Please model this.
Amino acid sequence: MLANLNEGQAIDRRRFVQTLMLPAALPVAAALVGSAAQTAEPTAADGLDIIDCNVHLFDWPFRKLKYAQTDALAEKLRRHRITKAWAGSFEAVLHTQFDAANRRLAEECRSKGDGMFVPIGTVNPGGPDWEEDLRRCHEAYRMSGVRLYPAYHGYGLDYADFAKLLAETAKRGMLVQIVLRMEDERCHHPALVIEAVDVGPLVEALKTLPQAKVQLINSAGRLLGKNVAALVRETQVTFDIAATEGNGGVGQLIAGTNYSYTGAIPIERLVFGSHAPFFPCESALMKLFESPLDLAELEPLMYANAKRLIA
Model:
């Protein structure tokens, strides 16, 4: 049973599933306030809307994705009450020159999706002239953050220029998203050799930059190793739920009982991320209600924590 919203009114899990997952269902808020409210005409402002911190636009180079077209992805996300989506570019994963990809991403987000997509650029601190790429992301393309792919771009989080990038983004008030993986290692193209990202050095790097805003996405427990406790205790890093596994996995993660994590991650440090269109967005939505989360936990996870990072 989900928690009360108004004077003892509550919604059971089945009603919540129907409301969140079915396009024809009434908004979440209407279900929460009881059957009387369900007779009212729903509006766009009703319900618990979602900010998705982890989507990509354009084509994944290794297979066709159903929602690779931006308008189709926007329609799909909006159908499930996702009203904002922080979008990186699949093109940037294997590119070595990023400005063209960042410019195209910014233009796509402006022209399609009716304001749904927030462009998140890409910078490679292991490559040349990354400072200029970062400046253009912030000043020319008005991006609120950058997304890093260290496993694909060939540098570690102990690399000197990675620390410089953290310092520069902190000065600019930008979010840094670190992608720990794009797909299961068993699915990699045989021509690629993708090493796992060691997140251990991130703890030390952030000790001197408490103002830096850093988020780990696609951060399955085994990819974090034994660093969960230190990341939670000694940094302000946030984590998305796209790669969380296990029945009731999000609730177990908060409680510190998820089998693949070596520590608990409090609700204040979790954000909704779907990894769409690579993953079906329904996968992340399922994780919300298969765990026994009440409204006090759902609201920060669905949108409030994200708003603290990017207004």
Remarks:
- The CA atoms of residues 59 and 68 lie 6 Å apart.
- The beta strands are 50-57, 82-89, 117-119, 121-122, 145-148, 175-179, 213-217, 238-240, 270-271.
